[in-house]
Amino acid sequence: MNVLLTSVGRRTYLVEYFQEALRGRGKVIVANTTFDASGMLVADAACLLPPPTNPAYIDEVLNICAAHDVGLVLSLHDWEAPFLAACADRFHSCGILLAVSRPDVIELCLSKFKTYEFAKRHALATPTTVTSLAAAIESLKSGELKFPLIVKPCRGQGSIGLNVAENESELEFYVGRCLRVCAQIPSNKLLHQDGDEAILIQEHLTGIEYGLDVLNDFEGRFVCCLVKRKFALRAGETDVAETVRSPVLEKLGRRIGELVGHVGMLDVDVIMVRDMPYLLELNPRIGGHYLFSHAAGANIPAAMIAMALGEQPKKEWLRVQPGVKCFKGITAVFRS
Length: 336
What we know:
The protein is an alpha/beta fold. 35% of the residues lie in helices and 26% in strands.
């Protein structure tokens, strides 16, 4: 089986993980909107794609699949996933497995307010959230909210536009600035829905942050949950983390996986406050903190390839050794 990773960007480690998992039984093909990305240099083949907004985008992805006999496609970018999900039938009709969830699942993850509503609907603890300055001021008066407050885009990535307001004047300033940032992000305008909210104003919780890798099979059935404690983040991505075993968080991951019914990996951000886990975000892809699970013995690429081939994943691929602390570094990749 050959595997296609779209929007590969700098994720050289994921390319190598899939190459190792295939063990010579197939190739890893990657695609990106520019060749100037390190992930394009380490794959078995690299292809250029237009942006997903281009009408030819899906045809080009299918052409790559046909040219390279691809059997499994994974998207590595949130804002690309809706376009693939909307055309899932075209991939399935060609006998290609698409490790991308249904459009409604993608939308649940991309809209952080819909994530908040999902948590409330299923009685999952989550930070109190409103979607306007007026609502925030009213909630401050009633005591439902108190400073400090987080201001961020409803649809954002990498902590773009995120600020912490300590008082009402800062809140008003950051709301205005966040709205300006949102207007300047092409992908936010691209994914904007009629009636959608532009920003969120959210309770700022203090606690220990965790990342959950929640794996489902290609039918949306829960497979496993891997847990890491986060120690440092950079531009919204985990920089330092340690694998842990936590029955509470593993149970939460299972419940989320069963409720969401996603396909493949769901990257889940949680904060533990006084032994209570609060759901922060859902990301419909292999997330930036997966490599910490891989370093501690898990092998989700191998598990996904096995499931795609109709095989049972090995149990050791679906668990981590606890207490493994890892640090992200910088590696240079040279074009020959």
